Amino acid sequence: MLAPRSLRKAAVPPSLLSDPSPGSLQPTRLAVHVNAAGSSCSAYLASGCRVYKIEIAMEVEMLSKGKESLLIPINAEVISSSVVDRCPHRSEIQSVVLAEGEGDGCLILGTVDSYGHLIVSRLDTVADDIDRASYSVPPRDCGVGEGSWAGLCFSPMHQSTVAVARELCKCIDIYDQDIHVRSLRTLWYPSSFSFAQCMPQVNESGSMLAIAEGSQLSIWDLRTSNNGGCVHRISGPIGGIIYSVCSSPSGPIAVGGTDRTVTIYDPRRWSALSRWVGCSKYEITGLSFSSVDESFIYVQGVDYEITCGLWKGNERAFSFRGDSNWLGFSKCANTDVVAGWCESGSVFVADVRQDCLSVIG
């Protein structure tokens, strides 16, 4: 059983960022990382053409709850704030992603703007000079046309493999560092995608990509060219849109969207394992499986709320709310530190751990 340890609220300094850009519906402009000691959390925020970094103190543990297990935040101290100089985009950044690099204290920061321009930087979290190296990949069409939402994700097995999605172009580009490998052409506008971390059909993970396009969930194999690489399609809500998709290290894939339902699919038979109906009051635009207990999932809705619940039993564990529309939603890669960034400039950070009493019981 999961139990929240603390919920903090930190304000982005107005001198650093006073008026964030609106962005798209998908809250993909936030990435968080907790240092090895767990004393602070680094939040990377994208607004306009720049990426900003704030460091939030996490040493004090205090938790208070309201009605219906709603967490009440406490004010947190912003230790430092700065601008990340290695992201020279010319248009609005749409997505920010952090991945664990090789070696201690190394992070990989990926950003993509509304025209598909990709920039990947290696950050040193230990030394004062955080910038190690970076590379830039321009879009295949040189940025011609109308800008739209764009996303990116790193392969869990091969960190040099990066996938970049562009909504209006209906295209997913696969890169090996700065080398273009192939392009996947979707039938509908892609709104979210994720590398499948564990697929029983293949011996090697990292070659399968799950894409939410319109009301369908499509599965793509990067090793095949038949049917453009698409190996399976699952129809979702009729007339609805899937806004978020995420995969679990053990295999299940979760989707959510306008139907306000989280559906968990079994990749062995592509049948629904569970449906958590009405887990959000409004559209679901963000999902993430728990790293501590994969039977729990975090659900981010348009109504300022983030909910954690047991997807197998359709049971809510706890939730917390922001004070305005979400601009970013993120969870740390290997720990349950969940963060949300609001357009008011507030960053909410929840630290969730395994409930020791339930384990002993």
From TrEMBL:
Gene3D superfamilies: YVTN repeat-like/Quinoprotein amine dehydrogenase. Coiled coil: none annotated. InterPro entries: WD40/YVTN_repeat-like_dom_sf, WD40_repeat_dom_sf. Residues 13-23 have a biased composition (Low complexity). Residues 1-23 are annotated as: Disordered. It comes from the Eukaryota. This is Anaphase-promoting complex subunit 4 WD40 domain-containing protein. It comes from Oryza glaberrima.
